[in-house]
Amino acid sequence: MKIVVDENVSYELVDRLRTGGHAVISMSELADRGMLDEDIYAFMLREQSVLITRDYHFTNPLRFPTEKTKGIIHVRHGNLKSEEEIAIVENFLLNYDREFFQGKLVTLYRHSIRIR
Questions:
Q1: Where are the alpha helices (DSSP H) in 4-115?
Q2: Structural domain count, the chain
């Protein structure tokens, strides 16, 4: 799966996803660090990739329509340690096919998932 990982997500997740065979583009590795949310959204559309972010702004469907995307995975803010964040994302990706959340917003919480 092709995945764009936002700068606000643990870099350890990038390594773990790559090890798991995913094609990962880390926004923190790009020369254009600190891109605007609209530019990140346009980038992930061009790349036809899933976006993983902790940025709450991406949950606004008027500003960032999910139906145009391969999916937006929002990791809900909280006091998550890096390993907890990784476990939440990995657990979700293992249990849900990409087609299931394509065009949808997924919010991952410590103990639950919301898909809309």
A1: 11-19, 37-47, 82-95, 98-101
A2: 1
